[in-house]
Amino acid sequence: MSRSHPFLFAGATFGALGAALPALADVPRVAVDIAPVHSLVARVMDGVGTPNLVIPSGASPHEYSLRPSEAAALQEADIVFWVGEDLTPWLESAVGTLAEGADVTTLLEAPGVSLLDFREDALFEAHDHGDHDDHGHGEHDHDDHDHGEDAAKEDHGDDHDHAGGDSHDHDHAEEAAAEDHHDHGHDEEAAHDDHGHGDHAGHDHGAHDPHAWLSPDNASTWLNTIAAELSAADPQNASTYFANAAAGIEEIATLRTEIEATLAPVREGRFIVFHDAYQYFEAAFDIPAAGAISLGDAAEPSPARIAEIQDRVRGEGIDCVLAEPQYNPAMVQTVLDGTDAETGVLDPLGSDLEPGAALYPQLLRNLADTLAGCL
User: Fold this and answer.
1) Which residue of 19, 44, 177, 284 could cross-link 243, Cys pair, CB 3.0 to 4.6 Å?
2) Contact 318, 290 (CB under 8 A)
């Protein structure tokens, strides 16, 4: 369903002149799945048009029921950008039926994207390195972060546990089959609740952690992917799309430097996240989490998984346990009981931010500021 175009970088040829060009033709109608990706698309379309956001930023992408207006955005779209089935398995059929005539780009499949494996365990070891699938595009890896990227690779998580009101009815038989298909060598764990996999029934996840937007390198790659797709559909505005993508890439590079400085004083701190959704950020900035209360696909954690986390927090000097806006804060309080650990709120979606081009950089900045403040 995805279509790729050669990557082009906007340079002096496009420059300021291209950015100033008015839209000379009908602008494609664009639908985007989640707010961080919507922000990247909005950055590329700046001055030309505005994309439609399908899943509200306060809702969980793992389980959600589309409202009529959101379904209409897909149905009317000429172009659809979505992370992929690993993040929103329920959305695949909607994209296939409602957006049948649209050009669909699955961003997890874009050339140049670095993917990390989905983590199953509750506890992460800082120097356990999992397999890293970068699709042969090592140019997006930074030498300063190679070690942290591999370390963070062991932990995978989707960052969204979702409010019950947003849940979507799924075919549980099909999801149970998907769980069998994605056995990561944890047969015993899959059969028993004592490692948190009993809660996993009824949820579907792929081999890769789908929270790839939290990697600045992936976001930069996607900006060019988005510009290429838009330019193919709307060549008269191609110069603007690529100029905007180039500007967005520069902004992310500047932001990376800012975040490095923010996190430098706290890199030795140890923290637990609510939902295993941050390993791309951990890898990019060499600041690995020590564990996650919930799996990356937002499956409800078992009592035994929570007990594992409690033991680590109480016995291993964890400095901070982080909640999320979409989750029940009582569970974090249970983990914190009897400890001196601090707490804060991480949000991988930017649910408190206004959707648009400014959301993505502010989202990453907020993650860094929250970690630094808690640690």
Assistant:
1) 19
2) yes
Those residues whose C-beta lies under 8 Å from the C-beta of residue 66, and which sit 6 or more positions away, are 54, 74, 94
235 residue type, one letter: P
Tokens of 157: 């998580």
Which residue, chain included where needed, has tokens 């690529």? 242
Q: Which residue has the tokens 């993040």?
A: 87
| Rg of the chain over all Cα atoms, to the nearest angstrom | 20
Rounded CA-CA distance 342/94 in Å is: 41
User: In this structure, are residues 77 and 233 in contact, taking their beta carbons and an 8 Å threshold?
Assistant: no
Residue 25 is predicted with a pLDDT of: 55
The full DSSP string for 83-104 is --TTT-TTHHHHHHHHTTTSEE
| Cβ 170 vs Cβ 162: under 8 Å | no
Query: What stretches of 201-350 show up as alpha helix (H) in DSSP?
Result: 216-233, 238-263, 279-285, 303-315, 329-336
Q: What is the pLDDT of residues 223-277, one digit of tens each?
A: 999 999 999 999 999 999 999 999 999 999 999 999 999 999 999 999 999 889 9
Query: What is the C-alpha separation between 68 and 275, in angstroms, rounded?
Result: 29
In 3D, which of 289, 262, 264 has the Cα closest to residue 277? 289
Query: Are residues 21 and 249 in contact, defined by beta-carbon separation less than 8 angstroms?
Result: no
Provide the strand spans (E) within 135-224: none
Q: Considering only CA atoms, which of 248, 242, 244, 240 is closest in space to residue 218? A: 248
Structure-token pair, residue 170:
């799924």
Quick check: pTM over 0.90? no
Give me the phi and psi of 139, to 5 degrees please: -65, -15
Structure tokens at 186: 């944890």
